[in-house]
């Protein structure tokens, strides 16, 4: 949901408007814009997934910081995971400094204070949740802040956040939004304890979040036609039998779940104007379907229309037409 687009405001009002929006959505903070004399451009979008709030901030460079003093001015005690989809962010906390690029993320605890910045045009996507929702000691959360690069869970959570952001308008209003929030929190707990907890706690959380991590791994590799049960099991150091047992206990069939997620991705791309130039076969292949006839048959069984009919239906609804329809 769009909260602010400074392009709609007079230049003289943009800095104050962005600061008011940032404070209103995420709590007390200080904000400094890069080169305010040359113009501030910001687009702020916010979505709610149950107890979790997802933020997208796109535009010119800036620096935002929170101190313990800021925390005393509001009642929010939150944890945030910060990612940078465009540009390179700079995260600082208690002497720890790190760059946040397309392949990394940062963990921020509001009451501990932190600083985040980027230069030039950037896109930062982050989520925020009450600290108590994680069910972890605050000291453990803070211990994890400088250690995230050592966690094998970080790439899974990063991909998960990117996927949420890519379809946030649709997913945030879906009946499954609460379940997506739960999966996000479980991955965040797994991330923190993987680098900041003792062996016993790590083993317990690893066991509790195993299915969530498996599904996140599958989502991150959906477009790979070489994704097999053996590969998934090996990536998590379990047997194929254990993999199937976990999926059964979670109420899902592994192969059916993978095919359904791939079909959802292909269905989205077939209707999207930015993919109008691509052939149906190319879109199917990009989602791991190597057999066009199998893809068409499964698509029709699932959605009651062929891929060609689906694409034509959405173009008839007003999307621009271009490219090969084969």
Topology:
Layout (H helix, E strand, L loop, with lengths): L1 E4 L8 H13 L3 E4 L8 E8 L2 E8 L2 E5 L1 H4 L6 E9 L2 E5 L2 E5 L4 E5 L4 E5 L3 E9 L7 H7 L9 H13 L1 H4 L5 H20 L2 H10 L1 H11 L8 H7 L4 H10 L4 H18 L8 H7 L5 H12 L3 H10 L10
Helix pairs in contact: 3-6, 4-6, 4-8, 6-7, 9-10, 11-12
Give keywords.
14 helices, alpha+beta, five-stranded antiparallel sheet, 326 residues
- Helical content band: 40-55%
**How far is the first residue's CA from the last residue's CA?**
35 Å
Structural class: alpha+beta
Major sheet attributes: 6 strands, antiparallel
Which strand order do you get reading across the main beta sheet?
A: 1-3-4-11-6-9
- What shape does the CA trace take? globular
Q: Can you tell me the residue ranges where pLDDT is under 50 for at least 5 consecutive residues?
A: 319-326
Strand tally is 11
Order of helices and strands: EHEEEEHEEEEEEHHHHHHHHHHHH
- Rg estimate, integer Å: 22 Å
Please indicate the percent range of residues in DSSP E strands (runs of 2 or more): 15-25%
Mean pLDDT: 90
Q: Count helical runs.
A: 14
């Amino acid at each position: 949901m769009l909260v602010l687009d400074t392009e709609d405001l007079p230049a003289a009002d943009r800095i104050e408007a962005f600061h008011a929006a940032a404070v209103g959505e995420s709590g007390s903070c200080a904000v400094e814009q890069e080169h305010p004399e040359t113009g501030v451009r910001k687009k702020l979008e916010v979505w709610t997934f149950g107890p979790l709030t997802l933020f997208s901030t796109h535009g010119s460079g800036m620096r935002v910081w929170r101190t313990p003093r800021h925390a005393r001015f509001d009642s929010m005690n939150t944890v945030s995971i910060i990612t940078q989809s465009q540009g390179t962010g700079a995260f600082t906390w208690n002497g720890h400094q790190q760059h946040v690029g397309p392949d990394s993320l940062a963990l921020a605890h509001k009451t501990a204070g932190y600083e985040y910045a980027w230069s030039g045009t950037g896109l930062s996507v982050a989520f925020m949740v009450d600290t108590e929702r994680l069910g972890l000691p605050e000291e453990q959360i803070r211990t994890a802040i400088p250690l995230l690069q050592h966690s094998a869970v970080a790439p899974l959570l990063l991909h998960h956040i990117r996927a949420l952001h890519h379809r946030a308008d649709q997913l945030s209003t879906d009946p499954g939004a609460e379940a997506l929030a739960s999966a996000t929190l479980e991955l965040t707990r797994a991330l923190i304890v993987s680098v900041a907890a003792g062996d016993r706690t790590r083993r317990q959380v690893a066991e509790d979040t195993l299915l969530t991590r498996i599904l996140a791994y599958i989502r991150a590799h959906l477009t790979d036609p070489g994704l097999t049960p053996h590969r998934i099991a090996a990536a998590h150091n379990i047997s194929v039998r254990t993999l199937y047992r976990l999926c059964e206990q979670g109420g899902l069939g592994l192969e059916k779940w993978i095919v359904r997620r791939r079909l959802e991705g292909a269905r989205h791309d077939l209707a999207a104007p930015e993919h109008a130039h691509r052939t149906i076969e190319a879109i199917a292949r990009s989602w791991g379907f190597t057999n066009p006839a199998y893809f068409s048959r499964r698509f029709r069984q699932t959605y009651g229309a062929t891929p060609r009919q689906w694409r034509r239906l959405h173009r008839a609804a007003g999307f621009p037409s271009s490219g090969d329809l084969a």
